[in-house]
Write a structure and sequence with these properties.
This protein has 111 residues and is mainly alpha-helical. It contains 7 helices and no strands. The chain starts with a helix and ends with a helix. InterPro entries: Cro/C1-type_HTH, Lambda_DNA-bd_dom_sf, TransReg_Diox_bact_type.
Length: 111
Amino acid sequence: MQKSFGRRINKIRKEQGITSEALAVICGVNPVFIRQIEGGTRTPSLPVFVRICNALEMSPEYFLQDELKENPHSCDREEIIEYISKFTPAELKMAKNIIQAMEISFSDKED
């Protein structure tokens, strides 16, 4: 778990152009600790994990997707949210544009 979790943090941090030092400052931890999390040798506490999610503007589900079990009782809406929670920021922007285009298309049909 720790390796894939850390790799996801590292991937998103780098995509956003944030250094490990900057992320550490934002999260109130030592930069070495961030590198250890990304390397899979340490696991953050829940408060630090929440700060990482907020700093990188990512859902906890994205970072934990390998550990979370699928809920057989989820509806289509929850399934869509689950998929979207795993998107990178660039993928989220594209999904938002698609949804907005669909919304416009649907509203045009109602007129």
